[in-house]
Amino acid sequence: MTTSIKNYTNTFNIRGKEIEITAPARFDDATQKVVPDMKLDNAAVKMAQQKYREMFDFIKPEEIKAL
């Protein structure tokens, strides 16, 4: 199977809030369907979590570590 990476918009549900982000995802070239890629998937989740923290003005993990 050959794959390529393209931007993909996805919605994550974090604590009952819908968080929409656009992040790189891996696609099957033959079917154009998203296929699992742990590194890209984890990065998308982190982006959604960061957006959630910004929406509600929560402290960032880096700020906690700096204390």
Description:
With 67 residues, this protein is an alpha+beta fold. It has helices spanning 38-55, 61-66; strands at residues 3-14, 17-28, 34-35. The chain has a 3-stranded antiparallel sheet with strand order 1-2-3, with helices on one face. Strand 2 and strand 3 (34-35) form a beta hairpin. It starts with a strand and ends with a helix. This is Xre family toxin-antitoxin system.
What is the ordering of alpha helices and beta strands? Answer: EEEHH
Main-sheet strand order equals: 1-2-3
Strand segment count? 3
Helix content: 25-40%
Largest sheet: 3 strands, antiparallel
Q: How much β-strand is present in the residues?
A: 35-45%
Structural class: alpha+beta
N-C termini distance: 47 Å
Protein name: Xre family toxin-antitoxin system
Organism: Lactobacillus helveticus CIRM-BIA 953
Topology:
Layout (H helix, E strand, L loop, with lengths): L2 E12 L2 E12 L5 E2 L2 H18 L5 H6 L1
Antiparallel strand pairs: 1-2, 2-3
Which terms summarize this structure?
39% strand, 67 residues, alpha+beta, 3-stranded antiparallel beta sheet
Question: Concise description?
Answer:
36% of the residues lie in helices and 39% in strands. Strand 1 and strand 2 form a beta hairpin.
